């Protein structure tokens, strides 16, 4: 480090020390002066300006009154903007001032309107200990229900697409000997919530809304994205779809249990609710779409031939539409992206993958089943945590601030799977390992053979 850099560092440190040294305790400069904001909280939209009727009174300067001025400003300038200087000449003989202060919303979130007393030359200053809370709300363009319903429709189309390639014999064998689905259930509703809760406590101590968002992200059963990833990674598609379906049905029981235990005991919140209507409707629609897909394969084989040949492109298109819609309509959350969010988004899917893979191998699952169940645990749902958070008692803008957790976590988990797929392809490992592994070409060959047998029958 050269001499110039050293001098600048010393000057900066001195300025910090001087700034800290001149700040006085409240009441030292002008007695116990008071501020009346006329309201307990200011709520405004982004880009909106409102006037706050301010009353500063009971000001009794201990030095020369002309040496003092009041400064009104926003504590978080990136959220709200306001700056007014009130010289002592504007106060009456009783040490009182009334006037209006303009406050403009900049970006959704929380700020505060601070009032500070300063002496001439900033030799001394003190801040009023009770600032006015400011809540800046996001200007909504699209109704949240539209996003939820369209996302659900895309997910159901994905399940309809996957239902046409299920093997009923292998699916029946999985249901009759459900070791794999049991591993998936334990991973989703025991291991993942514990990981989510622990990470939330470590990364955001005291910030229970962010902890709750991460818990909901860990609790939500993976949707069709995990099934699509199983297709590309040569996993057991039948096991993947069966596990997803069972988890979605069991979520009706396990989600209330976790919310009652953690939401009300650990978070000390008695008002957290479970959207039973949306969850049960989604689970029923999922089963119905899978059933329709299976019926199409059995009853209309010529129609499903198109889906067989274009399964991967269709899956990719539907996945991109689902992710693109959710991210596109909630792009604003990335303003709240922090290193804690990045750590949570990386650690939760990685820890879930490793824990599930280890549990699968301990229960003597095949490599294909272990891979499939690990993908099922690590690919995180994006839509259901948002629905759960919208049903909680979080007010705006707090809800918008915490949506970054499920959206970022889901995106990062998907990116990790894509990187894993690319590495397997480059190393030549992305191959079918046993008869339960999904093979697109073999599926088409079997379908054509079945059609040939039908045509040869008298």
TrEMBL record:
Leader sequence residues: 1-24
Residue stretches spanning the membrane: 146-166, 178-200, 212-233, 245-267, 279-298, 310-333, 339-359, 371-389, 401-423
Molecular-function GO terms, alphabetical: symporter activity
Keywords, alphabetical: Membrane, Signal, Symport, Transmembrane, Transmembrane helix, Transport
CC terms in the record's Gene Ontology section: membrane
InterPro entries in UniProt: BilAc:Na_symport/Acr3, Bilac:Na_transpt, Na+/solute_symporter_sf
Location in the cell: Membrane
Membrane topology category: Multi-pass membrane protein
Family as reported in the entry's similarity comment: Belongs to the bile acid:sodium symporter (BASS) (TC 2.A.28) family.
PANTHER family, A to Z: P3 PROTEIN-RELATED (PTHR10361:SF28), SODIUM-BILE ACID COTRANSPORTER (PTHR10361)
Protein name: P3 protein
């Amino acid at each position: 480090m050269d001499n110039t850099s050293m001098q600048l560092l010393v000057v900066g440190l001195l300025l910090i020390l001087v700034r800290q040294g001149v700040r006085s305790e409240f009441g030292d400069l002008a007695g116990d002066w008071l501020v009346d904001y006329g309201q307990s909280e200011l709520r405004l939209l982004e880009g909106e300006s409102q006037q706050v009727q301010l009353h500063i009174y009971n000001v009794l300067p201990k030095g020369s009154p002309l040496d003092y001025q009041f400064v009104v400003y926003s504590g978080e300038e990136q959220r709200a903007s306001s700056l007014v200087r009130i010289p002592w000449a504007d106060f009456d003989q009783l040490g009182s001032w009334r006037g209006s202060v303009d406050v403009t919303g900049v970006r959704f979130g929380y700020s505060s309107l601070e009032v500070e007393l300063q002496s001439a030359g900033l030799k001394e200053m003190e801040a009023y200990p009770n600032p006015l809370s400011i809540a800046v709300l996001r200007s909504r363009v699209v109704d949240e229900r539209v996003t939820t319903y369209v996302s659900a429709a895309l997910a159901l189309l994905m399940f309809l697409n996957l239902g046409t390639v299920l093997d009923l014999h292998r699916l029946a064998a999985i249901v009759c000997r459900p070791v794999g689905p049991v591993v998936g259930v334990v991973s989703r509703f025991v291991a993942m919530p514990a990981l989510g809760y622990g990470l939330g406590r470590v990364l955001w101590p005291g910030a229970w809304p962010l902890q709750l968002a991460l818990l909901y992200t860990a609790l939500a059963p993976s949707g069709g994205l995990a099934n699509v990833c199983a297709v590309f990674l040569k996993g057991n598609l039948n096991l993947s779809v069966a596990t997803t379906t069972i988890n979605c049905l069991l979520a009706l029981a396990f989600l209330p249990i976790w919310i009652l235990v953690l939401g009300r005991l650990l978070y000390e919140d008695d008002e957290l609710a479970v959207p039973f209507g949306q969850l049960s409707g989604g689970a029923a629609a999922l089963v119905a779409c899978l059933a329709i897909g299976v019926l199409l394969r059995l009853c209309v084989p010529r129609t499903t031939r198109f889906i067989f040949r274009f399964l991967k492109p269709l899956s990719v298109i539907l996945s991109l539409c689902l992710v693109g819609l959710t991210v596109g309509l909630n792009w604003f959350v990335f303003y709240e992206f922090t290193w804690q969010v990045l750590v949570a988004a990386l650690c939760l899917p990685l820890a879930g993958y490793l824990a599930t893979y280890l549990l699968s191998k301990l229960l003597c699952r095949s490599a294909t089943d272990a891979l499939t169940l690990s993908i099922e645990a690590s690919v995180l749902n994006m839509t259901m945590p948002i629905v759960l958070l919208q049903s909680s008692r979080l007010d705006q803008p707090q809800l918008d601030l915490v949506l970054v957790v499920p959206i970022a976590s889901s995106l990062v988990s998907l990116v990790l799977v894509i990187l894993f797929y690319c590495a397997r392809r480059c190393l030549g490992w992305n191959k079918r390992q046993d008869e339960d592994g999904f093979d697109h070409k073999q599926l088409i060959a079997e379908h054509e053979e079945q059609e040939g047998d039908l045509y040869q029958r008298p």
